[in-house]
Amino acid sequence: MEKSAVYPGSFDPITNGHVDIINRGLGIFNKIIVLVGYNPNKLTTLFSVEERIAMIRDVIGDDSRVKVDSFSGLLVDYVGKSGTSCILRGLRAMSDFEYEFQLALINRKLRRNIETVFLMTGSKWFYCNSGVVKQAASLGGSVRGLVPNIVLKRLKEKFPDVKKNNSKK
Ligand code: ADP
Fold it and tell me: Distance between CA 6 and CA 31 in Å, rounded?
């Protein structure tokens, strides 16, 4: 029986915390669709959808169990059309819990058959999120170990002057 799940997020950019959830998710599901969400009216991300997808594909490599896609509408509509009924999410702190709890309930209200499955963060990735990674990288802090190497490279390209700026002070 095929057990598949959609793993939605902004992945701006993908971190080792996300990678951990995907790898452990593959122990439960035969197929995972990593879904990059975006809002066409709010262009506040550091990386474009295409850049985020390219980084995820690079990190996943040649694994036919993982598909990468993007969406901008209602998540439950995408999940319904994708032929799965499961949403995979990761949980870090209590602050994630409240938000995720609301999201899971509203999604189930919108589509009764959809269940959200949560995996607890790996202890190494407890404090790892895309926001802190971007902030640290933009200020010249090292995020090595928190993101895959390809992301490290892309972050350096996004903030080429960061070292120069720091040394001026
Ligand atoms: P972020 O909060 O890093 O911007 P996303 O919106 O891309 O994350 O998150 C997508 C999903 O991945 C969410 O369920 C989020 O809780 C989960 N996630 C993100 N980082 C981690 C992590 N370090 N450990 C476990 N789950 C995570």
Answer: 9
Q: Please, what is the angle between helix 149-158 and helix 49-60, to 10°?
A: 150
User: Tens digits of per-residue pLDDT, 47-64?
Assistant: 999 999 999 999 999 999
Mean of pLDDT over the chain: 92
Residues 6+ apart with CB under 8 A from 67: 31, 32, 33, 34
Res. 168: pLDDT tops 50: no
Q: How far apart are CA 19 and CA 72, in angstroms?
A: 22
Going by alpha carbons, the residue nearest to atom 22 of ligand 1 is 17
* Selection from 9, 11, 13 nearest residue 154 by Cα: 13
Q: Is the CB of 116 under 6 A from ligand 1?
A: no
pTM: 0.92
